[in-house]
DNA sequence: TGTTATT
């Protein structure tokens, strides 16, 4: 190692040749007995701003251990990987190198890039930030703009930090600004300066947060974002799916559908039963056992013969009538037959007051299932050999009169649970629970859109005032965008 | 009361 001074490395082709000719013994000794000065032999940590370097024009007979000494001259190496063909394992003549310190990378790049030629190569070594690091180099993404701001407005905001090659406001098909833009400078340094000065520096009128200024996504990042969006639309980020993956979640939906079919009489299932079924599955799968997601509601509808204490934790039909002006419960604790839903649709067929209602059946059914086959929730996906078709939820809002605002949702409800709860009333084209971006916690309100106003009205009639725990759902038409302006 | 958006 003593021969590998900076002077020699900076020098001639011959100097580098010495390195490669002698590396084997040298590196072995170094790696096992030596650490760079001041760096104890610990798991390497890299700086947050470390740069991944691309190393090109490497002779194919040099592997990592041969290369390491050459680059260790400039600092502690975090990772060094020679690129190899995925199938043949053949050396591709290049490598990726990350130093623990950003400074080391800059030093190495300055000292080595195009400065010498390794033995057997006819072009000089390449040492430069990997493509993956370039992050569009000079191109910025600007977010949280006012939607009224024009290209010129944005230019004015950014022009003092460098020369702007390109400035584009992102617009929807209708030409309306999406509140963000791309700004491309002629150099990375200018872009960096703009980030430092402008990111978070101000909040545009009407924007929900302060100005965002960052390097634009690379293609790779964009792909990842797309996938995440897709995943979100599939609902695989709900807690149920976190446990089993999207595939398992699909299986659960199937399971629930089967459950509903078996419970619903005449093809209809009460919303409460649907809700309960969804909720029970949710809890059963999350906790491993049926929990008590919903606190007891006033009254109590446990029919004779069903005495499991947890049964009372399911919302009873009676709890539905809280704010809906429905007839009061009868002495036996059952709602009057046909009385619960006043929307003209018989979700809830008349039945004997003494018979266990679909809700109870659903609940006890799931309870028994979960208790008897604790592993089945995980295995059931094997019954579905192909993944479900992906139907992205593009449409956010339905027509006027079809969109509901729902408040006082249980904290643990996500988009999926919200949809499950409103599915019995019609075709739900979207469901959205608002989530605090910082904490990822539900804000306990959301939106559901149907494809027709009748379903929305039916849902309001049945679900407004629906009691869950200590709270009652508030279900009403979503306020139109420009309504209720005091001016 | 439909959110932070990536040509």
Structural class: alpha+beta
Compute the average pLDDT.
Answer: 66
Shape category: elongated
Strand line-up across the major sheet: 2-3-1-4
Distance between the termini: 78 Å
Largest sheet: 4 strands, antiparallel
Low-confidence stretches: 1-41, 235-392
How many strand elements? 14
Task: Give the helix level as a range of percent.
Answer: 25-40%
Radius of gyration: 32 Å
Please provide the ordered H/E string of secondary-structure elements.
HHEHEEHEHEHEEHEHHHHHHEHEEHEEE
Q: In percent, how much strand structure appears in the residues?
A: 15-25%
Number of helices: 15
How is the secondary structure organized here?
Layout lengths: L5 H5 L2 H21 L18 E5 L7 H9 L4 E8 L6 E9 L2 H11 L13 E4 L1 H4 L4 E5 L7 H8 L5 E8 L5 E9 L2 H11 L13 E4 L3 H16 L4 H25 L7 H17 L29 H4 L37 H15 L3 H4 L23 E5 L7 H8 L5 E8 L6 E9 L2 H11 L3 E2 L2 E2 L1 E4 L10
Antiparallel strand pairs: 1-3, 1-4, 2-3, 5-7, 5-8, 6-7, 9-11, 9-14, 10-11, 12-13
The chain binds one DNA strand of 7 nucleotides through strand 6, strand 7, helix 8, strand 9 and strand 10.
Short summary:
Helix content is 35%, strand content 17%. The chain has helices at residues 6-10, 13-33, 64-72, 102-112, 131-134, 151-158, 188-198, 219-234, 239-263, 271-287, 317-320, 358-372, 376-379, 415-422, 453-463, and strands at 52-56, 77-84, 91-99, 126-129, 139-143, 164-171, 177-185, 212-215, 403-407, 428-435, 442-450, 467-468, 471-472, 474-477.
